[in-house]
Every structure is written in structure tokens, then in C-alpha cells.
Amino acid sequence: MTTIEDYGKYETAWCPGCGNFGILNALKQALVNCDLPPHRVLLVSGIGQAAKAPHYLRANVFNGLHGRSLPAAIGARLANPELTVIAESGDGCLYGEGGNHFLAALRRNLDLTILAHDNRVYGLTKGQASPTSQQGMVTKTQPHGAFPPPFNPLAVAVTMGASFVARGYAGKLEQLSELISKAIKHRGTALVDILQPCVSFNKINTFQWYQEHCYELPPEHDPTDRDQALRVALEFGENLPLGIIYQTQRPLFEEQFTPLKHGPLARQEVSRPKLEEIMQQYR
Amino acid sequence: MSQDIQILIGGEAGQGLVTIGQLLAKALVRSGREIFTSQSYHSRIRGGHNTFALRVGPAPLAASRDNIDILVALNAETVELHQAQLTQRALIIADANTAPNTAGAIPVPFAQLGPEKLWNTAALALLGQILGLPTEPLQQAVDEMFGHKQAEVLAENRKVMKKSREWAGQHVPEHPFTLADRSTGAAKRLLLTGNQAIALGALAGGLKFCAFYPMTPATSIVIELISHADTMGCIVEQAEDEIAAINMAIGASYAGAPAMVATSGGGFALMVEGVSLAAMTETPVLVVVGQRPGPATGMPTCTEQADLEFVLHAGHGEFPRAILAPGSIEECWSLTARALGLTEHTQSPVFLLTDQFLADSSRPVTPFDGDTVTPVRAGSDPQKVVPPYRRYYLTPDGLSPRLLPGLSEHLVVADSDEHNEEGHLSEDYGLRKAMVEKRLGKLELLKRQALAPTLNGARGAELLLVCWGSSLGPVRETAEILRGQGQEVATLHFSQVWPLVPEQFLDILQAAGQVVCIEGNATGQFARLIRRETGFAIDRRINRYDGLPFTAGYLLEHLEKSAAA
Ligand SMILES: Cc1ncc(C[n+]2csc(CCOP(=O)(O)OP(=O)(O)O)c2C)c(N)n1
Ligand code: SF4
User: Fold this and answer.
1) CB-CB neighbors (< 8 A) of B408 in chain A
2) pTM of the model
3) 8-state DSSP, B58
4) How far, CA to CA in Å, does A15 sit from each of A194, A201, B199?
5) Are residues B20 and B159 in the same domain?
6) In this protein, which residues make up the domain named Thiamine pyrophosphate enzyme TPP-binding (chain A) (predicted)?
7) Which residue, judged by its Cα, is nearest atom 10 of ligand 1?
8) Do B358 and B401 belong to one domain?
9) pLDDT for B296
């Protein structure tokens, strides 16, 4: 049995009151819910406040480059399919710098969980607009207000045929850890976009604001119905639905690679006789 | 002069000229001949002017010749473009409708010999007749190629082969091109391009993961890998871009799969941040850079050696690296396997620097001896670790135990930020200094394992030709020709261009009469590197940067020019 203590306790570098704390606690709870021992878990992140989260719990960690958590996570997952791989980063990291990787990861559908700490701002670099910033948000680098409408990660994910698409909120711990557990258990790439108040730089989307604008998806919502899911995902203004928006079964990317039928690549020997046979093809 | 024969097959892309060349190459190698082939093509799928050059002779060959003895012209343009390169004795094989009205031209009534789709076979048969090569090995190569098709196709091919051979017997004039007796009976030899050899070397060396984004001339390495990936237990993934490719390879390597990426300069430019990541996280990764002319997209299908400085300095911050540059098809194999071992052993990025010339050239080689390679294994033994496990444990030689995540109860924390011994990010100035020193300390390890350059000829020779990477073949041939003319010439070839260990070669440079550095770039990057590292100034240089590879002909001409200057 894995307990919450197994995941340790660390000092963090986050601002007091930051939404990241809730996400971290929900993640630990989810790992315990899934009864995963720390050494089976690999957390991969990019760079940003959110991307520091893997440092604040006990697990295997690969903290790579800004925007590049997904390719690194994919490489690791392909090398060792026995690892439970979770990619964790901010909205700037995942949807901005890493946008191309985000699209490609959803299309591939490896068994992988993506946790987007979506504070709708660049936290670590002190408050510039991010791809999900509300239109008109004024910042030091967007003095006239963010011009483009916000990137809608969930609508994009549903359209790309992602196999698990959900929205959580850092202020609703129990529901969030439940969503993360389901995402981890889902066979395929699971995206959980997590609404995260940034108390230092996002003065629009505050805890108060989310309290007023979030609502739980009703039980009638059928996450297997893609059209319905897309309609819900497109609700991205004054009302933000929470819960599993879309879930489907698609073949797993890793299943196409025969070498993975034999477990982690690190455990596989190089066959001399096979190599000799291959060389004969060049005679 | 030379007893070898240079054949050039030219035509449009899509006319099947490479097939003719490859089948002929196969038949010649199997009948014990020494050959060298190279290709020139343009960045288009159909049309354009492409060539396949095949040189055949009694002794091993490592470069093409500039002039042509037998020109197979699949269109009229080929004759026009190569007229000036024809030797006095040259033959031109061309369709009766397009053949020029000059001496040596053999107008072939292809339409009479077979249907258009089999004119390849006809051309092959004609070449066989001219070279005095028996039908049997040619027929066998053709049969193998079409073996999977219906019997009628095979029969039709045989018919065309026979008819063409007979026609040639009656119509090809007396000429001096019949092959000398076979030089070696080594029927076991393999016919490999540089890129095929790189792929085989990687698999032999224990490669388990490769990610790539297609870019000439590196793509054919990956295609070769893919064809053997399932058999050898290797995963090859086409990434969404080069940035993803290198990050995937690093992620895979972190998790235990010996990994590489293969690209060219433009793609490597995108990978550069990943190079720093590998260095900082101390994750092994092999980066194969197949050079072609830049900047930017440059000349996609041509060759150059101009990315040495780029690869040498790629990545921000300070960290050590090794750069190996194969000079031959054999080295493509052996250095790739070596580089994989080196990257794991030093937990640092290692580069293999090759180019289009080597990538697309082929030559017969004796099968590699598997006994000379121990496939690399990722990570160290978790049993030997005294807890608590620390990924970046500060050791005197800079190498910390590299465990793999998930394969033991130890937790493996890797970080691109500066980190403490556990792998967690740290902003401690003292620790930062210790970690920088730990990483830089690996330079000593790399130097201890550095390959010495190869001297061919006498120390203290009148003329010393210095070169690196793919220029080896043409440079050696040049030296042989000059020796034949009574000159005292030696060559010094670097198949490791970084780190350089001056004790391995400085005295050779100092002892030589005249030192000439030969490299495929405009500014003399390697000559400059030697000067920076040793203080030795190489004052004579021959640089080629028109997109074409060196040949002995080019070098002899320019050696004379630069001597006169
Ligand atoms: C290649 C690169 N570009 C820029 C940066 C600087 N940078 C660090 S974090 C960050 C944005 C972080 O925003 P987000 O991903 O939303 O995470 P948050 O800090 O808000 O949690 C930027 C631009 C970097 N580290 N690397
Ligand atoms: S800047 Fe914002 S996101 Fe970063 S720790 Fe502070 S509150 Fe959290």
C-alpha cells in the first residue's frame, strides 16, 4: 500500500496562496489512490513555476527544457513501458513553447498523463500574457491588452481526437485528485487542464473569479459523445465546466512497436546472430 | 595511367539510373572487383540531372575520378553536360535517337531490345558486355531485384538481357575496357554506403532508440535502421520536428535506451538546446550530423565539411563533448559503435560528423567483426549503490552512478537547472562551481580515449597532407599518385576532430617539410582549430566549397596551383 507519506514533503519556491499547492496535493493523493509506489512513477516537466512541481514530491523526475516536457516524456515511455509517465507543466510551456509537441502527443496517444497547470499567465517570468490569457489582459508586455483570443486547449484536444480530456480546478481538491486518478488509469494520452489561480500575476482569474465561473458537468453529460464533448469544450468564456469532457478508446501508440512486447529496452540484449544475418543482406 | 575505369550513368530522376548502377555494383563486387560508387542528385523527385558514378579497378578505391571512360546517357542532356569530362578513349552509350555523332558514341536501338521499362536491363547488359563481365552475376542481381514478381517479369528481363548482350557483341567496337582479372576472391564482402554502415554500426553498438525528422543526407541512415529495428529490438520514431527528436532521444536515454538522432546542419540548428540539456542532465546521446552546404537550406543534395565549428560550439554554457568524423565506410561502422559507447561511458553528448559524400558513396568492405564491439549497456548496477542514491554524486572523475528510473527502488532525478547531488534544482553558488567542474572534468576522460590521427607515409616527409572526415579517400589517392611520381608525401587523417590531443600529432606536423590542410569548407575551420589548440600554423590550404567532393584530380591541380602561388 502506498501512502501519502511515501511521496514526501518538500520546501517549495512558490508564492504563498498559489494554486500550485492544491495541484501538488491532488497529484499526491491521486498517486496514492492509484497505489503507485514512487519508483514506478516518472514525472517529466518543462520550465516554469508549474514545472517545478515534480521537485516537490518523491518520484523519478526528468525536469527538462521549457516547452519540451512531452517529447522527453514520450521518449522515456517508449524506452520503458513499465513506467507511469506524467508530464506536468504550465500553460506557457505546454501550449506556447511546446504547442507543436502538444498536438503531436495527442495524435500519438501513448499511455501518458498531461497535467497542465493553467494559470493563464507566465508566472516564472513575471506576468507576461500566455496562450490562455483572457483577451484584453493588460500586462507589462501587453500594455494594450492581450490581443488574440485565448487558446482553448480542451476544444483543440477533442478535435485532435485526444482520448481523455478533462478540466479540473486547483480550488476543488477532491474532484481534482479524482480526475487525475482517472487520467492516470486511462489507457491513452490523458489531458487534464487545471485552472490555477496565480495570486501574484493574474488579477483577473482569481480564486474568487473561478468560484463564480466554474460549474460541475452534470451527470447527463456523456463524455463518449464527441459532438457533445466539443460543445462543452467550446464553453470557454464566462462559464467553465469542470470534469471529464471527453473520453474514448483508441489504439495505444506503443503497441505498434514490437520490441516493447519484451519490456523495457534497457533489459534487451543485442543479438549477435541476428546482426550477422542482417549483414548478409548486403552481400 | 590508371587501370581503373570510371563509368557515369546520367539522366533524369525517375529514369532508373540508380538501379542500373546498383545492380552493376553488386555484380562487380560479387565477382571480386574493387569498386567505388557515388551519387549526385538534385532536390527533386522527377526530372533534373542525376548521376550515378561507378569506378571499377584492380585495387581498392575510395573516391571517384573526374574524367569518364564510359558514359551511359539516358537522355541527350547527359551527353552535353559531361562531354568535357570524357577521356580520349571514352565510349558513350545512348539511345540511337539521341546519340551524338562523335567518336566513341554507340547508338543503341533500345526500342528493338525491349520495352521501355526494361531499358535499364538492356543498359546493364551492354555494360556487362563492354566490361567483359559474364552474364551470370548480372542476371542474378536482376533476378533478385525482381524475384518477388511474377515469373513472366523474370523471363522478360532474361530475354532483354540476352538480346542486348548479343546486340552488343556485334556492335560494340574494340575498346580497352575489359576488366583485369579479379583482384580478390572475397565473395563474402558487403557492399555498403556510408549511411548503411552507420546504421549497422549503431545496431552493433547497442542502439535501442532513434528519433528523427527527415533531412537529407541523414534520412537514409534512419531508413536503414527502420528496416532492421524490429529484428534488433530498436525503436525508431519520426518526431514532429528536430527539437522533439533530440528531446525524445534524451528522454529515452534517461530511461535506459542507448539513443541517437540523425540530421543535417539545419536540423541540428534546432537540436542545439537539446545538446545543452544532454550535457546538463548528463544524459548520453549520440548526434549524427550529415553535413551539406549551408547556410540555411543551402544545397540540399551536395556535400561540404563546414559544420565543424558549429558542432564544436553548439549549445550554451560550457561542457565537454567528443566529435568523431569517419573517413571511410569501415569507419562509419566502427566509429558509430565507438561513439555510442563513449556517450554512455562519459554521460555526455557525442557527435558523429559525416557528410553527403560519405553518406551516398559505396564500396565493398569485409564484414565487420562483431568481436571488436561490445554493445553498450545503459546505466550502472543498482545493487552496487550505497543508499541514499544521488544521481549527481560528486566523484573525483566526474562520473556519478547513472541508474535508470523504474528498474530499481532508487529514485532518479535529472534536471536541466543547476542541481544538487540528488538532482534537485539549486541556486547555491558553491555547489554550482562544483557541478561545473564535475562536468568539465569529463574532458580528461574524453582526452584519454581520444583516437590519434593516422599517419600514412614517413614522418618528416617533404609534403604532409592533413585532412579530416570524409576527405580521407581522395587525399590518400592523391598521395599515392604523387609518390608514384617520385615525391615524398605523407597523409595525416583525423577521424576524431575533438578533443584534440596535441601530443598525438604535433611533432608530426613539425617534422614535415610542407603541411597542406585539405578540407571541404571555405575558411579552413580545421586548420584554424589546430592552430588554436597547438599554436601550429598550417599555411597552405586547399578548400573546396562548390558543393562537390574532393577528387584526386582536383587536389593535384590545386596542389600545383598553391605551390606556384
Ligand atoms: C527556451 C526558453 N525560453 C524562455 C524561457 C523563460 N521562461 C521560463 S518559464 C517561462 C514561462 C512560464 O510560464 P508557464 O509555462 O505558463 O508556467 P508558470 O510559470 O506560469 O507556471 C518562460 C518564458 C526558458 N526558460 N527557456
Ligand atoms: S507567480 Fe503565480 S504561479 Fe508562480 S508561484 Fe507565484 S502565484 Fe504561483
Assistant:
1) 39
2) 0.97
3) S
4) 18, 11, 50
5) yes
6) 51-194
7) A48
8) no
9) 97
Q: Which segments of chain B have a pLDDT < 70?
A: 1-2, 181-187, 564-565
- B294 in the same domain as B346: yes
CA of A50 to the centre of ligand 2 (A): 8
Which residue's CA is the closest to the ligand 1 atom numbered 8? A48
Widest distance between CA atoms in chain A = 73
Task: Compare all CA atoms of chain A with the CA of B274 and give the residue at the minimum distance.
Answer: A65
B280 and B214 housed in the same domain: yes
Look up the CATH number of the domain holding residue B100. Answer: 3.40.920.10
- Banded model confidence at residue A160, pLDDT cuts 50, 70, 90: very high
Domain limits for position B360: 192-372
Domain count across chain B: 4
Average pLDDT value for chain A: 97
The pLDDT value recorded for residue B184 is 61
Q: Give a yes or no: residue B275 inside a domain.
A: yes
Provide the CATH number for the domain around residue B223: 3.40.50.970
Distances, alpha carbon A263 to alpha carbons A14, A39, A184, A255, A269, in Å: 38, 17, 20, 12, 12
Decide: A196 and A20 in contact? Cβ < 8 Å: yes
Judge if B445 and B463 occupy the same domain.
Answer: no
Host H or E run for residue B447: helix B442-448
Q: What is the pLDDT of residues B226-284, one digit of tens each?
A: 999 999 999 999 999 999 999 999 999 999 999 999 999 999 999 999 999 999 999 99
ipTM value for the complex: 0.98
Q: Does residue A48 carry a pLDDT above 80?
A: yes
Does B249 contact chain A (CB < 8 Å)?
yes
Give the span between the Cα atoms of A196 and A153, in whole angstroms: 14
Q: Are residues B214 and B134 in the same domain?
A: no
Asked whether residue B415 falls in the same domain as residue B468, the answer is no
Query: Domain range for residue A256?
Result: 4-281
Does B368 fall in a domain?
yes
In this predicted structure, what is the pLDDT of residue B330?
96
Task: Supply the DSSP string of B105-119, one letter for each residue.
Answer: EEEE-HHHHS-GGGH
- A75-118 pLDDT tens trace: 999 999 999 999 999 999 999 999 999 999 999 999 999 999 99
Mark whether B215 and B292 lie in a shared domain: yes
